[in-house]
Amino acid sequence: MSLFKVFKNGLWQENPVFVLMLGMCPTLAVTSSAKNALGMGIATSLVLAGSNFVVSCCRKFIPDQVRIPCYIVIIAAFVTMVEQLMQAYAPPELNQTLGIFIPLIVVNCIVLGRAEAFASKNGSIASCLDGLGMGLGFTIALLILGGLRELIADGSLFELQLIENWQGIYLFKTATGAFFTLGFILAVRNHHKAKRRRKEGLGYEPPKEPICLSCNICKLGK
Amino acid sequence: MPDILKFCLSLGLICAISGGSMAFVNHITSQPRAEAQMRERNELLKLVLPAGTRQCQELESVNNVQFFAARDENGKLLAYAAEGSSRQGFGGELKVLVGLSAEGKILAVLVNQHSETPGIGTLVCERKQKQSLWKVLAGKSEKNPFPANAFLDSFASQSLNENLRVDAVSGATVSSNAVLDAVNAVAGAWQEKFAAVSKTEEP
């Protein structure tokens, strides 16, 4: 896979929020406004690129059987150091806007997911690009969600009032509204996809074998 | 070598290296971090103190609550400020700056350090200004250095010598209570520091 393809992959085709369904917790919590969404997206992108790079550099020294705890330790240490360095040397405005998101990223499953799915098998430059692409895809998804929610809840975008005297809908400021918005976005996306498949003469095709990935709950007790 | 030993060793080594580098970064950044925090606090102190303040002097701290005295150019006492903290925030420690009149009335409250969840807990921490897009485009917008926050403003003009009464924000109860806890810490320290003084001064 070429490096550009690696980068592009995360943007839409394997978008972490809309397709992989990773990192739902910060997605639902943080997207109450477009500004928060952008801050979270940028902070995650940078951390993701860095942690993918570090994990990819260490991948040859880590035994397969203990790789997950090793990744967790490496990522947590990396993020903690970035947070402290930012508090010490970053300009105060930057620290105020991005710094509050960093504690949320430490245990974000996108970071761990990409370390496991990509960085542990690929070179360091490809991993760094994969992190950037995934981060950018995450940012785009958060911006769509956050923008819609802020518009519906407050009639504003990036704290700029677009619609004067908008009767706000408070529901969309809460996590409940985030579920609604995400559900509608996914419905539109799936509708669009199904329409395209019908045009090509293909119907809906359920997966032949349910993909269980790492969940082995049905094998318990056997 | 049995496998289990190899796993333990490699995991232990990675933990040791991570721990060591974290300790190193913590060590070299501890001073710049404290300085950056101090600078930020001094900037924010100007917002909670009256406009005529010329000099701000650090007073003794009581029960970990740092007091400041604000004076005008003639050295006349204008107001006090205090920095209180609470460890009951959703993301750990939370610090508030409280501007106080000389009689112990709250002038303004500001959260100057927190790690609450953005978009949820920050409802009670942030003072955000909403500007109209059309005014910004027309170049008529004005930046307000101290935008309103209904929760933080509900503290204003209450007296520290009485029980504070505020309504928590729904959806951010833990963060609201943490802010209230921090202001209550200031109130406790205030009563200890100044109530004792005024009692002894009475004939």
Q: What sequence of helices (H) and strands (E) makes up the elements of chain A?
A: HHHHHHHHEEH
**Largest sheet, spatial ordering of strands of chain B:** 1-2-3-4-5
Largest sheet of chain A, if any?
2 strands, antiparallel
* Rounded average pLDDT of chain B: 85
The radius of gyration over CA of chain B amounts to: 22 Å
Total number of domains of chain A: 2
Major sheet strand order of chain A = 1-2
Instruction: Compute the number of strand runs of chain A.
Output: 2
Number of helices of chain A: 9
**Average pLDDT, all residues of chain A:** 84
* Helix proportion range of chain B: 40-55%
The structure class of chain A reads mainly alpha
User: What characteristic shape of chain A results from the CA principal axes?
Assistant: globular
Uncertain segments of chain B: none
How is the main sheet of chain B built?
5 strands, antiparallel
User: Rg of chain A to the nearest angstrom?
Assistant: 19 Å
Please state the overall shape of chain B, judged from the principal axes of the Cα atoms. globular
Q: How is this structure best described in words?
A:
The complex is a heterodimer of chains A (222) and B (203). Chain A is mainly alpha-helical and 222 residues long. Chain A has two domains: 3-171, no CATH class; 174-220, no CATH class. Chain A contains nine helices and two strands. Chain A has a two-stranded antiparallel sheet. In chain A, strand 1 and strand 2 form a beta hairpin. The model of chain A has no long low-confidence stretch (mean pLDDT 84). Chain B has 203 residues and is of the alpha+beta class. Chain B has one domain (48-194). Chain B has four helices and six strands; from the N terminus they run H-E-E-E-E-E-E-H-H-H. Chain B has a five-stranded antiparallel sheet. In chain B, strand 4 and strand 5 (106-113) form a beta hairpin. Chain B starts with a helix and ends with a helix. Chain A binds chain B through residues 29-33, 36, 39-40, 58, 61-63, 65-66, 69-70, 73-74, 76-77, 80-81, 84-85, 87-89, 92, 95, 100-101, 103-104, 154, 156-157, 159-162, 164, 173-175, and chain B through 3, 6-7, 10-11, 14-15, 18-19, 21-22, 25-26, 29, 32-33, 36-37, 39-40, 43, 91, 114-120, 122, 128-134, 136, 171.
